[in-house]
Amino acid sequence: MEPGDSKQHPPDLRGPRRGNELKNFRRHCHAAFTLIELLTVIAISAILMTIILIPLFQSFNLTRQALALADAQDKGRELTERISREMSEAVAIREGGRILTTFRATPDTPISGNATIIRIPPVSVGANGGRFLNPRPADVEVVLPFSKIDIVKAARGEDSIDPANPGQYRDPVTGKIDPTLTSPKGQVKVSIAPGQTMVRWFVALRDPFGLYNNPYDGLLMGRNGERDNLYVLYRAEVTPRRWTSVTLDTGGTAMRYVTDTRYFESVEPTIGVDSTGRRVGPVPKLDDPRFMLGNDGASADVDEKNRRVNNWLRKSIVQTELSRYDMIQTLYDLQSRRVRHDNNGIPTVLPLVQFRPGHVGSDPAKGMMA
């Protein structure tokens, strides 16, 4: 051994037992895993985890879908029973008929009075048609058939309006003015007559002033992480007309039943100006398919229209879920996931709830003997 070897080797490898210790060191080195063995174990573990975890996650998704379906079915049954009960207790169900409106730049287009107009993004056309467009173009108007119903409630109590406070009703129990009353309170009048209160069920955006956003299905727009803004089912109880002071066009001031301008426009001709300075008439415009469209460019007065939309939101209660459940269904091909559309790229959508009139075959047309 050279004199300098003691500086090159560690102390434990020098001395009389150098051979045995070196063998033990080599034996420990051969006992460790090689790089190929580690890579093989990692690959096998990844394959096993994939086989186990993917079905596990899929089972979670199926469970959530089943729970969502069960919740939707329960909610649907509850809403069906409630609407049926309200219709059975109502004096009348309004027949919307046909109305004329400007639709897609075409004036005097006939639309059902039970329909509403909504806005959704268009899709691509051509050989690869039916796909969502990116960036998102301007939304287009679509008619949503049978998405609105008006239920007229029976008259209740007496029209006990305080003479000193026009438009304020008295509570029949206490005899005092109740500013929260918007219609007479009390028992149903006999014989049954139409009251001042109307219940409206309708489909509209959760936020009427925002854009439609469904980040879940990837049909009309790409999947995204922004908050959804879906179409929901509302219920609102309003008074189409109210008793108020009107400055008549013929001169003078008088108390009249006129359109409640908080929620409706007046049908021409009008008779004067109410206490808020708005033109009013005896007949409200009940069949406005755009009554819940915020920032409506088709309206003559956008600010006035937005004020009415906000008033509708104050009176309306969402009957379905605020998120995750969309009340419109986009028709598409299940295999290619291409949205069904017309030549202009306007998608075909249907409401998930339809207030469609039907024929009752067992209802007798005339009196019958039991």
Strand order of the largest sheet: 1-6-7-8-13
Low-confidence spans: none
Strand portion, in percent?
Answer: 15-25%
Radius of gyration: 35 Å
- Alpha-beta content class: alpha+beta
Order of helices and strands: HHHEEEEEEEEEEEEHEEE
Q: How many strand units?
A: 15
Shape: elongated
Q: Return the average pLDDT rounded to an integer.
A: 83
Q: Report how far apart the termini are.
A: 128 Å
Provide the helix percentage. Answer: 10-25%
Largest sheet: number of strands, sense, barrel closure: 5 strands, antiparallel
**How many H/I helices?**
4
Descriptive report:
It is a single chain. The protein has a five-stranded antiparallel sheet. The chain has 370 residues and is of the alpha+beta class. A hairpin with a 2-residue loop joins strand 2 and strand 3 (106-112). It contains four helices and 15 strands. The protein has a domain at 37-155 and 196-240 and 286-351. 24% of the residues lie in helices and 22% in strands. The mean pLDDT is 83.
